[in-house]
Each structure stands twice: as structure tokens, then as C-alpha cells.
Amino acid sequence: MVTREGILWLALVLPFFGSLGASFLPVKARNSAAMLAGLIALAALALIVSLYPAVADGAVVKSRVEWLPSLGLNLLLRLDGMSWLFALMILGIGLLVVLYARYYMSPNDPVPRFFSFLLAFMGSMLGLVVSGNLVQLAFFWELTSLFSFLLIGYWHHNESARSSARMALIVTAAGGLCLLLGILLIGKIVGSYDLDIVLAAAEGIKTSRYYVPALILILLGAFTKSAQFPFHFWLPHAMAAPTPVSAYLHSATMVKAGIFVLIRFWPVLAGTELWYLIVGTVGLITFVIGAWAAVFQQDLKSLLAYSTISHLGIITLLLGLGTPLGLVAAVFHTVNHATFKASLFMAAGIIDHETGTRDLRRLSGLFRYMPYTGTLAMVAAAAMAGVPLLNGFLSKEMFLAEALEFRDGSLLDTLLPFVATAALALSVLYSLRFIHQAFFGAPATDLPKQPHEAPFWMRLPIEVLVLICLVVGVVPAYTIGPVLDAAVRAVLHENTPYYSLATWHGFTRPLLLSLLALAGGTVAYLLLRTKLNSAGGAPVIRYFKGRRMFETVLASVIGASRRLEEMVGTRRLQSQLRILVAIAAFAALLPFIPAGYAIGSERITPVQPGFAAIWVVGALCAIGSAWQAKYHRLAALILMAGAGLVCCLSFVWLSAPDLALTQLLVETVTTVLLLLGLRWMPKREPQQWRRGRAPRSVLFRRGTDLALAIAAGAGMALLSFAMMTFPIGHTISRYLVEHAYAEAGGRNVVNVILVDFRAFDTFGEITVLAIVGLTVYALLRRFRPARESVRTPEQQRIQNAFDDSRSERDRGDTLTDYLLVPRVVMEWLFPAFVAFSLYLLIRGHDLPGGGFAAGITMAIALVLQYMAAGTRSVEERLRVKPLSWMGAGLLLTLFTGLGATLFDSPFLTTWFRYADVPLIGKVPLASALLFDLGVFLLVIGATALVLIAIAHQSIRTPLRRRDMELISRSEGEV
Amino acid sequence: MEVVLALGIGVLTASGVWLILRPRTFQLVLGLSLLSYAVNLFIYAMGRLRVDAPPIVGADGTVDPAALTDPLPQALVLTAIVISFAMTALLLVVILASRGLTGTDHVDGDDE
Amino acid sequence: MMNGWASHLIVAPVLLPLLASATMLLLNERQHRTKNAIAMVTVLALLAVAISLIVETIDLGFSGGSTTRVYLVGDWTAPFGIVLVADWLSTLMLLLTSILGVAALIYSHARWDRAGPRFQTLLLLQLMGLNGAFLTGDLFNLFVFFEILLAASYGLLLHGSGAQRVKAGLHYVAINVATSLLFLIGVALIYGVAGTLNMADLATIIPGTSGAELTLLQSGFAVLGIAFLIKAGMWPVGFWLPRTYAAAVPPSAALFAILSKVGVYALLRVYLLLFGGDWGWTGNFGEEWLLYGGIATIIYGTVGILAARTLSRVAGYCVIISSGTLLGAIGAGEGAVIGGVLFYLVSSTLGISAFYLLLELVERRGSEASVRAVVEPVFEDEYTGARSLAGEDEVGVVIPASIAILGGGFVFCALLLAGLPPLSGFIAKFALIQGLLDLRDGIAPAIWVLVAMLIVSGMATLIATTRAGIDLIWTPSERQPPPLRLAEAFPVGLLLLVCLGLMVFAGPVMLYMDRAGSSIQDRQGYITSVLGAERASKEERGPRER
Questions:
Q1: What ipTM score was computed for the predicted complex, to two decimals?
Q2: In terms of C-beta density within 10 A (0-12 exposed, 13-18 middle, 19 or more buried), how is residue A876 classed?
Q3: Where on the phi/psi map is residue A806: left (φ > 0), alpha (ψ -120 to 50), or beta?
Q4: Is the pLDDT of residue A538 over 70?
């Protein structure tokens, strides 16, 4: 025994599974795909139909699954009369469309994909109408937009399909986002997204201060989807889709989603002045414009598209009136329109299919070729025109009655009947034109194909729909009556009005008006038919080209943002750094604005003249290097080194021997590096400005930079000074000092911190070194010096010339002799360096030194060899495998740290004891020492790698033109 | 002393900032190095200044935290020194590569 | 509180990648099969570790215990040593990182790991840096791990060399070196006032500070904040981001997707912990700046994404938009929104990562191969045989119907980034807006703007992606679509699948996110568990003999 909830769920998921299945079918499997789709639609339809008893008596089938309870978003299926009616349309027409599409689609198209999308759309649409949770509704709403996009773009090989699909997606998805926002507001007002709760809270919503934004947002959603003015323009272009899609999405279902939402929210939003004003007006305008435009179309499908817009306008207008009867009429007309419009689209599709054209001017006298289709089309068109004994007539009657009934004295109200009649006359006109132009008159001569009747299975869907039109038109009370009643009751509950579904109400004013419309339309057609064929688009609104506007707007938005991006963004490094410095300075300043700048109470240590003196030098060096860096790189470099040296000295002075030592070593290596780098820098002559001096813009930029620099400097100075004047309060280093020796067994607290307390930092720091080493290695492997910087330096050239001139010497000898002494010295020094670095390594734990310092020293020793003996010879003599050293170093530190875990202590927990070693004396055998050894290895590896890699470049050949081109091409200039 | 050091930091920072705002890659490198000097001193200064009080415990292991300067900032500076050294090296190499590939030493890789 | 190997799980995400990459350093490039194996095993192990950690979190969390697990590196108690902290947020980020790691590594096998030496090593080190940054509970240690992940990202960005990358790299390195200096200044100021670096310790000390010292402290945090914001790519300090990411090879870019989120993470962590809760946060120190900055960033991202001419730029601006959204939402200061923020963070990171992997397949130029010229060796252990990619292009299973798969993947990515259903992007955006719209005491204009920008930026993303996607995928071209390899399709599929999971299991996921959100605002809980953590060895350690 399956529960009703179960049936509902099954009906919802079936289409999606079908879609998934169809997407896996082979590309050419047209029949199996169609079969699958048909069966799915049929099954779902049967399931929904079987639920009718459940909703007939105003009851509701609800089933809820927790999805995102914390935010009130749950999967809540809710089937009442209204959603049942829509579900019926979606699945019923869906089934017919599938059948039709089977014969319409060409076997060369990837038909399974088509059916896959179609089924997915069907499912989304179904999900939309049975949503009991508003967010879920928005969810499925966006899905319908998505699949309509895919379906419109199905023939994406032609341009119009692509652009139309995109336009439809953007318009409807934007509307969807608005809808979501509106729904969120509603949810916030009510405190829940559950439809029932929301419906119950109608008053609260209408009186809320957020009613207006919520209303507008939701209407935006509905109007975009239902192609209401001014968002109607996407619909005619959506006709680029295969005709089955137009018949399904753009007449029967998707465009009705907006209507559905209006109906759903009708109880909570409608009835206010604003609602009447917006919805009523928009509906009326759409109604008229649609009808007017439809009259002048030459393309069958666009004629139908505009008439669809116009009919959607009627429905919106009816809902806008805000009266119960209006709602009834709206729902009724929705159903009727779906039936006759779908059949008309299918008929148009057949004509297109059989004759190869949709141009009304070329079509003529088809009736003799396709009598069945002709008859069917005629009946459907008559329904559209509102001829008695057809369903269209009934809803039109209701509409006119409503138009006449309603009284509030406003301009809109007084105009309504006349405008309505006129517009209806127009719809008669275009219906007539459609039929007469296509099927009557002399047989067409210049058709691409020789027309003949469509196959039975292709006509069947139309026959079914037209039959419905007839039956409903003749005996409404026994056919649509109960269904309509159930639907309307589901929305209006107790205040459902009295209305009679009958073909004959006697001679009423509505009847009069509709007859007037019929007559007027016919007369107009007889007068204008020839003119209309020569008309190039609708007068007046021809100039309102929605699509072009859309494109223009989009284009200008994009153009504007391109210009804007240039303005608010930059790609220049200088500007970015400028902003960075400025922002940082500002941020640092911010807290001082309210608080003001104050210094602490701590007494200031008296200035020692020596210290001041070295800093005078240091400052001069810094400024000098800033001054010289552009044209005299070497000088600037030396000056910078000077500044660095002053830092070392002040570290010594201020009792930081470790810092001094490390700084000194790093200093050396950095300088060497930069020296090696200088070799590849282009020669720079002082810039020649026109009119002798730099232009004002440049001077201004320099001025601002200078100001910025001074500001930053002042800021740092003030910050540091203020900090130094505050008494040092609570600090963790007290603990560190106390425990350094007792628990970590090191007397040099700084080193103990590095290898024990905060060994993890050191661990990370050497990893950074390793990574940089790797990067340098990877980068320089591709490095090719620029062409002009490769010429051998002048001095060398002179020497070579000298060598060449002497027969007994060969090239490079002078250079070798030249460097003989230093080379010998260096070679002798090498072991000394090694010894010294090892010493630093061992003593590190107790006195200044440590793995890093030792490693750097070692690297320096290596580099000195390079400088003295030349790259080639060194590379021949000692085999450097820096990567392996780095790996070894990392592993050593890692395993030292991991050793602790064996004793169930955390990573990097140290262990140590002292041992007496002859000569050296008492040395700590600390695991920290092993750790330091690892650091040592890695530092050698990384530093040597960088230095050597750069030094090595000198013996490389420049990049050949060809490679240069290769590279620039290969970047693919993103 | 504090004043002198603060001024020193200030001058280093100022010249560093000036340099990193210049268009040439070499100026950039120098600027960043100068800035890193400044920042190292700055970090150090956060532990306040002490003369002749290196954070090294006496050979007998007797400890008087008050008598020693704050070792932690020194440790931080050491880490910072190493890292900034690594970064300088990397930046230099990138600059050389850029010079080799674009043919200019402008920071944007193109002379306008 | 050491109980066997399980307790070391917290440090594993940092050590495993290092162990692997150190080993790989010892292998030369001829042994790349071995190295591939090592790398793959490592990332999978990382994934396993992350999963087990997060499972542990959930168990603890729903059994009512404290989820904040502390690891005392070197067995020194906080605040004296360095602590690693695994809690709701950090374990979540670990999992996210490891997923991206797996995807990027697999993808790189298709071709990119051969565009230059040592790609996988750098990738692993990148993961190490990320994991460390997410785990550490020490401000300076955070700096160190930032440097690790930055250094690795330099390597990954420059991987494959070429003028574009080097130019972008130069900017990237320069800006980040400057940023690191800011970071140091900030940390230094904080230490100068508070005398400690441990975050929990800071959180206890800060409320006690006042007067001029507090001003200095706040100044320090402001500078630190700027450093984080630069990493997050906030306008106007994020201009470097799109160009940099666009220049990187796809797998690198896919990892970079989370790089910008590290800044956001640090902001969340540091600011909610140190200024969150009762004081500061409500006294909004820098909070409104965050909000306005976030809005400005989204606007810039929107403008940029509309202006973008190539997919890679589009993706870059998606990163900007995502950062802006996060910053704005955090700045909005609604405690309730943090859960949504985290959901959005995860979802958008995955989406962007997938997008980066995909867009290269969509707009493939396939000429990387020609870059590599044979070069004489610099070092012994360098392999310089010409391993031209052209020869190896055929490796890997080539899957049919590539265009359809590309199209599908692309559509999903676009929807994900634009915040449309059916993927998690929709839920994320919904959760954010839902959290932001708090009608109880009216909606501030700034919040309205923020919400509007969320919608607008979504639309802009949709416009941009459809434009590019339609041109590249739907427009018929004579160019034969390149064969799609399984190694390339799988990671994209994996990431999208995770997003699908986020969508389907939105309830439980959001539950986790909310718990994470409230946990980072529960300062006291964090403080007690970190400062209360006990050493493994109770007895005083010391020299056994003198």
C-alpha cells in the first residue's frame, strides 16, 4: 500500500531519474530516448491523476523531509487543488510534447540530450508547483530557468539560439534572485518559509514595513518569468528553440510559473493599492502591447509568442484586480490558454516542418495539402480568438465581466472595458490572419519543400488538445468545473465567490463586448490584410526593440566596467606598494586618533656617544643607498651593507651577540648574492628628460613618495620609541630564562629558545629556506641571461686580447695568474672555515653560534672558492649536491623531533646530557644538537644552492632568438 | 639610547619605503632589505634596551632573569633574519629571471 | 594527556608532507615514478588524517566534551612553548585543504608536473604550510607558517617559468615580502605590550590592558589586520590577486583558491578570539572597516568580472568577490552569520578550485610543451634529459564525449559561483543572506548594500561565465577539442561532487558550521583548554648528571 505522500514523491523524482537515464543513452538513440521520456511522463501523470481524490475536497497532501532545518529550509511537498491543476498541465502537455517531439526532432540531432533536458525541466516545474516551502520554490524556479536556457540553446550551432538562450537565462535568473530575496524578506517577516504559515500570516505581511520591498522583489521575479512588460522581450527570441520547446515551455508551463507565484502569493500580497496599481497596470500594458505586436508579425512563431505575451497580460491583469472572481477567471484562462496555445505551436511546428518556412507572407493555401492540420489549427485559433463554444470564449467572457464589474473609479478602471475590447479585437485579428494567411488563398508557389499532411502521431497531440478546447467550451461544468473549483478553493477557501461555468448567460454586456471584438477584429482584418503583409514590424513599438536594448545595456555595462576597472584598479607594482604603505600607515595611526600619542614612565637609558656616532653613519648609509640605487648600484649596495653593519654593531652594543653574529654572516652572503646579481642588470644611463628637467608629474610622484616614506619612518620611530618607554610588564621570557638551563640544559637562552622552546619556529624557518632553494633551483634552470648583458666584461676582453697576441699563452691565462694568489689563499683557508663553522655549531647551545650561523659560514667558505677559482674548476673539483643536503638536513631535524614520540612525548621534546670530550671539554649531547646539525646541513645546502646557481649563470649561453619566441608564444598570453 | 635607536629605525624605514616605491627592480631589492633591517631592530626594540646583559646564563647555571635582557625578541629576530634572507635571495633570482625574459629591469616588466 | 599515537595525529598534517618532500629531495628526477607514488600516498594520508580529526571533533562535540584539542610541541606548556590547536574550525580547514591537495595532485599528473622540476615537492610543502597555519595557536608561529605557504606558493606560481609567470611572480613576491614585514611589525607591537605570543594567553591579557598601551596594542592589531586583508585580496590592496592566479598553472591556481581564504581564516580566528565576545567585538574595533572594505571588494570584483576578457581573469575576480563576501559578512558582525560564512567559505573555495582546473581544459592552448629547452646541468642531481610534454601527452586514459563533460562541468561551476541551484552555492548564498537580514532591529543601510551586492555579484558572475562559456564551448570551431584525460576530469568531478554533497547534506553540514561559528566565539572555552593543557612528562626535566 503506497501512501499519497509516497506517490507524490515518486511523481517528483521520476522525471529527474528519467533525465539522468536519457543523458546516458547513445547520441543517436532517438526512439529509446523518446520512449523513455514518454513512459516517465505517462507514469508521473498517472500518479498525479491518482491523487485527485485527495485534493478534490479541498484537502492537502503534505510530506516533509528535513533538509536544512536550522535555517528553516526543508523539502516540503504540498499538493493542493491549485498545484494539482498546474501539475496536470505540466505532465499532460509534457506527455503530448514528448510524443510530438519524437517526430519533430531530426534523427541527426543528439535527441537523447534533448529529452534529458526536457524531463529535467518537467521535474523542476513539477517541483516548483508542489513546493510547500518558499525557498524550495525559489530553488526549483532557478532550475527551470537553467533548463529553459539549455533547451533554448539546444541548437547551439546557430548564433541566435546562443544569444537568445543567454538572454533568457540572464533575465529570468536575475528575476529569480530577486524572488529569492523577496521570499527571504517574507520569511523574515513571518518567521518561517512554510507556505501554510506564511498564508496564515497575511495581515502581518501587508502591514509590515518590509511589505513594499518584498512585494516589488517578488513581482520582479514573476514578471521576468511570465514575460510581462517591460521584461517581455526575451520570449519572442526564445522562439529560436525547437518548436516542441516553445510549445511546452513558452506557452504552457514555464511562462506560467510567474502566474503560479502570483496566484500563490495572491492571498498574502494582493488587495492592496500598490498591488492593484503595479500588477494591474503592468498586466494591461502587456496585454495591449502583446496583441498589438502580434498583429504585425510575419513569422508564425513570433506571432504566437506575442499573443502568448498578450494572454499572459490578461491573466496578470485579472490577478491584479485583486478580486476573487478575477482570480477564478485568471486560473481558468491559464488552463485554456495552455491548451489552445500549445496546440497552435505544434501546428505551427508542423507547417514549418512540412513547408520549410514560417513566413506568413510566403505561406498560402496550405489547406488543400494538410486538411487535418488545417482544421485543428482553425479550431485552436478560434479558441484563441474567443469564438463561442470554445474554451477561450468562456474565460474571455469572465474577463470582460470582471472588467465591467469592477469599480473603484480610477482611470484604469474606467478605461478597462474599452481597452480590453480593443485588445481582444486585435487578438481576433491576428488569429484570423494566422489561419487565413497560412491555409487559404492560392496555393503557395515558392515553398522550400513540397508540403503534405503530417504523420498521424505528430497530429495526435494537437487533436487531443483541440478536443479539450471543444469539450471544455461546450460542457464546462462537467469537465473543467470540479477541477477549477478545487483549484480556486485551495487559494480562496471560504471566500470563494459564486461563478457559473456556462456557455450561455443570456444577452449580457460581456457577450456584447466580445461579439463587438469578434466583429471588429474580422472587419479590421478584411481591411488591413494586404497592408499587414507589407508591414515591417509593429508601428510605434517597432522602435522598442527589447533585445537590442538588452544587448546595448549589457554592452555598455561591460564597457563601463572595463573603464571603471582601469580607474579603481591598477596593475603597476609601484602604485600597489604605494597604496599598501599608505593603508598600513593609516591603520597603525587609526587607534591614536581618539587616544592620542603618549609615552611611558620608564626612565630612558642615557645616550652613549659611540652608539650615536655609529647611527649617524648608519643613517647616512641608508639615505645614501636610497639616493644612489638607481644609477650607481654598486655604491648603493656597499652603502646598504654599511647600514647592515651598523645594525650588527648595535646588536653587539645592546647585548644581542647571537643577532650580531647571524646578521653579520647573512649580511655577507646577501651582499655576495647581490654582487653576483648585478652582473645581469642592464647598464643604466641617467635619464634624459625633454627640456632638461623632469616633467611635473614625475616630480609630483616623487614628492608624494618622499612624504609617504617620511611618514612611514616617523611612524615606526614613534611606535618603537613609545614602546621602549613603557616598563616591561608580564612577559613569558622570564619563565624561559629561568628554565633554559634547568630544563633545557642550555646557557645561551636565545639558542635554547631556537632549538627547544620554539624549535617549531626554527623547524618552519629552515623549511622556508629549503623551499626557496627549490624555487631558485627550478627557476634558474630555465634562466637565460638577456642578450646584451652577456658580453664579456671589458677588463676580461683586454686580458684575452693580450693572451691572443702572445703565441705561448692561451686565452684566460692572464685571468688565472691574476687570481693566483687569492685562489691559493682561499684554498688554504677552506679547512679553517670548516673548522670554525663546526665550532660554532657545537658551542651554539651555550654561547653565541648555532646551526644556522655555522651553516652560513660553511656556505661562505664554498662561495669563496667559487669566486677565487672560478665556477668551472670548482664544479669540476667538488661535487655539490645541495638538494640532497637539504633533504638530509630536513630529515635529520624531523627524525630528531620524532624521536621524542617514541618516548610518548610530543614532537620536538628534547633530551640531553653532558659528556666530557677530550680537547673540547664538556659538550652537551643534547638532542637539540642533532637538531642543530640538521639545521646546519640544510642551511649549507640551501645557501650554497642559491649562490652557486647564480654564480653558475655566468657560464651559460644567452637565449637564442628562436627560444625567446617559443617562450613568448607558449605563454598563451593569458 | 632609545631615541637614537628609534631614529635609526625611522631612517632605515624611510629610505626603505622610498626605495620600494621606485620603478627599478634593484631598487626594490635594496629597499626591502633596508626595511627588513628596520623591522628586525623594531622587533628587538620590543624587548626594551639593555646594555651588557646578554641573555646567557652563567657557567654555574645561576639565573637572575632581571639581570638579563629579554631573549625572546632576539629569537624572533633570528627567525625573521633567516626568512628575510631567504626571501631576498628568491626575489633577486626572480628579478634576474624577469630581466632575462622581459629584457628590462622595470618592476612591471615593461618600459613605458 | 599523551595517549599513544592518536595524540600525535594533530601534528601529522604538518609532518607528513615535510617527511615526504624531504625524502623526495633525496630522489633525483629520473625516479619520478617513485616520487609520484610517495606524493600520492602522502596526500591520501593527509586526507585520512583530516577526516579522522574531524570525526573526532564531531564525536567530542556531540558527546558534549570540549572539542579543542591541544598539542604542546616540545612538551612546553602554553604560553611558553608553541601549541597546535585542533578544534571545529581548524579541522574543517584541514579537511578542505587536503581535498584540494588531492585534486591538485591528481590533476598535475596529467601533464603539469612535468612543466618544471619538483612540482609535487612544492605542492606538498604548500599543504604543510596551510595545515600549520590552520593548526597553530601561536601568533609568531602563524607568521612562520604563513612564510612557508607563501614560499611554496612562489614556487608553484613560478612553476613552468615564462615571462607571464615571472612578471606576475615578481609582483607577488614583492607585495608579500612587504606584507610579511607588516605582519612582523604587528606581532612585535603585540608582544611589546602583552609580553606573550600565545593566542589564548593574549585573549586573557588584552582585556586587562588600557590607556596608551592599549592604543599601541590596537595599532599592532590594525597593522596585522592589514597584512591578513592583503592576503585575502581586499580592495584596494588585492589588485595583485587576479593576475597572479591567472598566471599560475592550473593545479597551482586550484590550490591558491584556499590561499586567499587563509587571510580570512586568520581574521576570524584572531579577531573573534581576541576582540570577539563581550568586549571589543561589540565595541567593534575595526569592524565597520571590515564591512565597508568587504562591500568595496565585492563591487570591485563585480566590475572586474564584467570587464574580464579571459576565463582565468573571470576566475580571479571570483576569488575577489568571494573574499569580499566573506569579509563583508564577518564585518556585519552578526554572530549568527558566522555559520553561513563558513559554509560559503568552503563552498566557494571548492567551486573556484574546480573552476581553475576546468577553465584550462576549456581554453587549452597546449603549447606548454615548447617552453622546455634542454639546459646543461647546474648540479649533479639534476636530470636534464629532454622530457618534452609532447611525447607524454598521450599518457592517461582519454575519455570520450569530452565536450559534453566539459560543458556539464562548466555549467556546474558557473552555477556554483553565481550562487544558483542545484549546487551548494545556492545554499551558501541563502544562508549568508538569511543570517544578514535580521529584521529585529531594522536593517542598516550598509547591510542592504551588502545583500544587494551579493545578488548583483552573482548576476555578474553568471553574465561573465555564460559569455565566456558560450563562446568557448557552444560556439562551433574548427579547432579539434583536445582529448580529455581521466586525470584531469576526475579532480574536477571530485570537487563538484563534494559541493553536491554539501548541498544534499546541507542540514548536518550547516549544523557543523554553526557549531564551528559559535566555538570560535566561545573565547573562554578556547582559553581554558589551551592554557590548561598538561605536559606529557610530569616530572621536571633536567640534566640527569652534572
A1: 0.92
A2: exposed
A3: beta
A4: no
Q: What is the pLDDT of residues A691-709, one digit of tens each?
A: 777 788 888 989 999 999 9
CA distance A659 to A656: 5
**Angle between the C163-194 and C240-247 helix axes, to the nearest 10 degrees?**
130
Q: Look at residue A958 and give its three-state secondary structure.
A: coil
Side-chain-side CA neighbours of A392 within 13 Å: the count stands at 25
Between A96 and C211, name the one with better pLDDT: A96
With respect to residue B58, please indicate whether it lies within any of the assigned structural domains.
no
Q: What are the grid coordinates assigned to A299, written together?
A: 513569422
CA distance A19 to A40: 9
Structural domain span for residue B97: 2-51+69-102
The top-scoring range by mean pLDDT among A230-234, A788-792, C41-45, C534-538 is C41-45
> How many domains would you assign to chain B?
1
Can you give the pLDDT at residue A543?
57
For the cut 50, the answer to whether the pLDDT of residue C374 exceeds it is: no
Reference C268, options C403, C12, C89, C3; nearest CA is C89
What letter represents residue A319's amino acid?
L
Q: Does A880 lie at the interface with C, CB-CB under 8 angstroms?
A: yes
Give, as one character, the DSSP assignment of residue C210: -
Tens-place pLDDT, residues C450-479 = 999 999 999 999 999 988 888 777 777 666
Percentage, residues of chain B above pLDDT 90: 50
What residue of C is the nearest CA neighbor of B94? C170
Letter for the amino acid at A803? D
**What residues contact residue C477 under an 8 Å CB cut-off, 6+ apart?**
none
Exposure of A353 in the CB half-sphere (CA atoms within 13 A)? 24
Q: Is A538 helix (H, G, I), strand (E, B) or coil?
A: coil
Chain mean pLDDT for chain A: 85
Query: Rounded to whole angstroms, how far apart are CA atoms A425 and A419?
Result: 10
Contact of A777 with chain C, judged by CB distance below 8 Å, is answered with yes
Q: Report whether A399 contacts A420 (CB < 8 A).
A: yes
CA distance A580 to C235: 11
- Residues of A within 8 A of B20 (CB-CB) are 577, 581
Q: Which residue in A82, A90, A101, A76 sits closest to A47, CA to CA?
A: A90
pLDDT greater at residue A916 or residue C100: C100
Interface test with B, best of C171, C173, C177 (most B CBs within 10 A): C177
- Summarised one tens digit per residue, pLDDT across range A368-399 is 888 888 899 999 999 998 888 888 888 888 88
Mean pLDDT of A457-474: 90
Structural element, H or E, at residue A147: helix A134-152
With respect to residue B16, please indicate whether it lies within any of the assigned structural domains.
yes
CB A944 within 8 A of CB A882: yes
In this structure, are strands C484-485 and C398-399 parallel, antiparallel, or unpaired? Answer: antiparallel
Residue B64 lies in a domain: no
Q: How far apart are CA C441 and CA C503, in angstroms?
A: 31
CA-to-CA distance for A257 and A249, rounded, in angstroms?
10
In tens, the pLDDT along A30-60 reads 888 899 999 999 999 999 999 998 888 888 8
Helix (H, G, I), strand (E, B) or coil at A465: helix
Tell me the pairing of strands A61-68 and A73-79.
Answer: antiparallel
CB contact under 8 A, C185 and A177: no
Predicted local distance difference test score (pLDDT) of residue B38: 94
B68 in contact with chain C, both atoms CB, cutoff 8 A: no
Contacts of A142 (CB under 8 A, 6+ apart): A173, A176, A180, C420, C421, C426
Chains adjacent to A (≥3 CB pairs closer than 8 angstroms): B, C
Predicted confidence (pLDDT) per residue in B86-97, tens digit: 999 999 989 888
pLDDT at A684 over 90: no
Sorted by where each begins, the domain ranges of chain C are 4-374+397-531
Q: CA A300, CA C483: separation in Å to the nearest integer?
A: 43
